[in-house]
Amino acid sequence: MTDALLSLVVTALGLGVAVAVVDGVSASAWGVLLAALAVAVGDLLLRLPLRILAGAAGAAGALLAGLAAQVLVAWAALSVAPGVTVTSGWAVLWVLLLTSVVMAAGRRLWGSSDNSYVVADVVRRARRHARAAGASGTGQRPPGLLVVQLDGVSAPVLVQAVDAGLVPTMQRWVESGTHVLDAWWATVPCTTPAAHAGLLHGAADQIPAFRWWDRDLGRLVVTNHPSDAALVEERLSDGAGLLSGGGTAVATMFSGDAASAYVVMSRGRRHGLGPGPGYARFFARPFVLARAVTVTVGEGVKELYQARRQAVYDVRPRVARGGWYVILRAVTNVLLRDLATSLVADALVRGDPTVFVDLVDYDEVAHHAGPTRPESLRSLEGLDQVLRVLDEVARVAPRDYDVVVLSDHGQTLGATFEQVEGRSLLDTVRALMAEPGLRGVESADGEEWGPLNTLLSSVLGRPGDPVVLGPDAAADRRRRRTRRADGQPGGGERGRAADAREPEQPVPDVVVVGSGNLGLVWFPDAPDRLLLEDLQERWPGLVPGLAARPAVGVVVVDTQARGLVAVGAGGLRLLEADGDVVEGDDPLAPYPSRARADLVRAARLPHTGDLLLVSSVGPRGQVHAFEGQVGSHGGLGGDQNLAFLLHPADLVVDDARCEDVDGRRVLVGPDAVHAQLVAWLVERGVRAAAVADVRPREDA
Predict the structure, then answer these.
(1) Across residues 52-66, what is the average pLDDT?
(2) E strand spans, 242-331
(3) Residue 260 contacts residue 275 (beta carbons within 8 Å)
(4) Helical (H) or strand (E) element with 601
(5) Cis ω for the linkage preceding 189 (within 30 of 0)
(6) Which helix (H) or strand (E) holds 553?
(7) What is the mean pLDDT of the chain?
(8) How far apart are CA 633 and CA 445, in angstroms?
(9) Are 577 and 563 in contact (CB under 8 A)?
(10) Which of 224, 284, 379, 617 holds its CA 20 to 30 A away from the CA of 33?
């Protein structure tokens, strides 16, 4: 009752300010209060019809119906409330918008969570159910697990944020002894697709990079394209992923075999954004969507100011932060975060046994601003608020949820390869190959466009025809133009390969991919991976030339006689020899102790590059991304490999799963973290409970 009254008062205050400012609407004090009450009643009456409609029309239908419902409720409330006069239809829209602005500003000034309003009705509903369960004597709750991923946050950055007072929720958990903060080692390639393949499916060995050249398909596989993500999940899923048995995935790359998946890349092409009813509450509740859109615009303005500040004060290293990125940051850091919070809260109140969500706020900002720059660290405040809200929901949920917070990797600061060398990695490779007319393909990571591409693919694209923005947009348009005349792609994987490039375009001579400070090079005209002997015969200056570049630290290449070799500017190291076999200067000396094992693993993954490059590491641990990012991850160096795992204190990390890395015992690789999470599910009895309570997939 207290929450409902508070919500009514806040709505009335917002309406009062909006009515006072907007022409075409006038109201007495009692009229404003009655209008706020009418809004609450209209919201209650429309919830069930909207959920039914969303179930039939999907997420896009929920969005359109929700927008219409918000306008209808506001118009009806202002029209029927005594003491309120409306003379203009446009005035209703302005009242709706300004009320949202006032409510968002008021909550920020009051110091309350920006996300609490998004799930306020969910919390009230859960509390009513909890009280009813307690009154009926059925208060014992079965176990559950909520895993929240804070994308790109390294363990050292999280410790820094705790010391700075930016993450009070996580700080309280650690200092009160309810949770323990551990680090884990993100193996090469330390990217989100590899992490999600490991964390959710225990199959990180299927991912050689964020994108890669597939010789069988004859094209690039790009994991933030829904069709490619679905193809990859088919390869790595065994049906027993982390979320199997009725779990829910929100905003992830792969599904983890979840029963329900929302904004999940691998489900995007076939199932869209996920079950429509999950979106109805967020899209239809008065002022929630309008508030999210308003704050999204504010986030874009903030990004413009912060980017300008870096330029004015000549902060170095830095990269350009204009164009599409301004919109991308605004949408992912507000609108998608609020939507994800709402979807997770719904899953908790439903009692789904396992829930996994990926929150990308920090990762997006840190890529363009730097991992420890002020705006990057301040983004952790918003993420900590989400944790506080979800913790509140979990307390009144029908299951007794353990809350685990982790990251998929960290980030490391540094000037880009192009800033250091004056040209891109592709241009460098072409120059060293010294062949006129060489056909090359270069691909930057584009990881940050994943969530937005998933969203737009369902809402704006034709069925099975994803919308792609960012650095992959041009390639995606070419891909669509190569479909058969009847509009259908060719059958099977070979058919999909034919669609990936225009028929008149020959296979490129060289493909270069930058995934943070990990670079991969393929020579697609060769049926198999080229060995060093082949490369020396065809382009004798290529490998030594790359290794000699100041921004390149090591080049890994396979050989016929000696296995994998790490080549540096002043020496080489045999990676698969017994013992340490080094000739000249050890190229791995500047890297962490896990470098040799990580590079051997990465260089033996399916579809890996003919050449693997890791940038050089500076005296202060800075690296050089092979793409336009000042904060990067993918290879080795700095904090990018030190992810964190914040878990309940009574759920102990099994030391037998850990390895020694630079003087500490840690889990190594996302597959090891997956195994630990599954062990905790078994320990708590969640796996058994989930098996007994398997729900059919809602998006089937």
Answers:
(1) 61
(2) 248-250, 260-262
(3) yes
(4) helix 595-603
(5) yes
(6) strand 552-559
(7) 82
(8) 10
(9) yes
(10) 284
Structure tokens at 206: 């299927």
H/E segment holding residue 31: helix 29-80
Distance CA 360, CA 407 (A): 10
Q: What would you report as the CA-atom Rg of the chain, rounded to the nearest whole angstrom?
A: 26
Among all chains, which residue has been given the structure tokens 């193809």?
231
The three-state (H, E, C) secondary structure of 115-146, written as one string: CHHHHHHHHHHHHHHHHHHHHCCCCCCCEEEE
φ/ψ (deg, to 5) at 515: -125, 85
DSSP secondary structure letter of residue 465: B
Is residue 153 within 8 A of residue 634, CB to CB? The reply is no
Name residue 287's amino acid. Answer: F
Higher pLDDT, 563 or 442: 563
CA distance 627 to 549: 16
CB neighbours of residue 209 within 10 Å: 30
> Is it the case that residue 221 has pLDDT exceeding 80?
yes
CB atoms within 10 A of CB 111: 6
CA quadruple 541, 544, 548, 551: dihedral positive or negative?
positive
Sign of CA dihedral 186, 189, 192, 196: negative
Length of the chain: 700
Residue listed under structure tokens 């870096």: 310
Question: Using CA atoms in the order 103, 106, 108, 110, what is the torsion angle rounded to 10 degrees?
Answer: -140
List Cβ neighbours of 390 (8 Å cut-off, separation of 6 or more). Answer: 146, 148, 341, 344, 345, 348, 403
Residue 270: its H or E element: helix 268-271
Sign of CA dihedral 622, 628, 630, 632: negative
Q: Classify 402 as helix, strand or coil.
A: strand
Residues in contact with 166: Cβ distance below 8 Å, sequence separation at least 6, in sequence order? 377, 378, 380, 381, 384
Query: Which token pair is 87?
Result: 């003379």
Q: Band of the pLDDT at 437, cuts 50, 70, 90?
A: low
Distance separating alpha carbons of residues 493 and 629, to the nearest angstrom: 33
d(CA 254, CA 276): 19
What pLDDT score was predicted for residue 143?
A: 96
> Could you give phi then psi for residue 451, rounded to 5 degrees?
-60, -40
Residues sharing a CB contact under 8 Å with residue 306, sequence separation 6 or more, in sequence order: 321, 369, 375
Both tokens of residue 502? 């225009």
For residues 431 and 416, give the distance between their C-alpha atoms in angstroms, rounded to a whole number.
19
* Average pLDDT for 495-517: 66
HSE-up of 371 (CA within 13 Å, CB side)? 26
Q: At what angle do helices 336-350 and 277-284 cross, to 10 degrees?
A: 130
Q: CA nearest 335: which of 367, 290, 380, 389?
A: 290
Structure token pair of residue 411: 């980030």
Element holding 336 (H helix, E strand): helix 336-350
- Amino acid letter at 427? D
Residue 504 gets the label, from left (phi > 0), alpha (psi -120 to 50) or beta, of alpha
Q: Are 661 and 593 in contact (CB under 8 A)?
A: yes
> CA-to-CA distance for 694 and 245, rounded, in angstroms?
5
In contact, 92 and 78? CB cutoff 8 Å: yes
Pairing of strands 581-584, 571-574: antiparallel
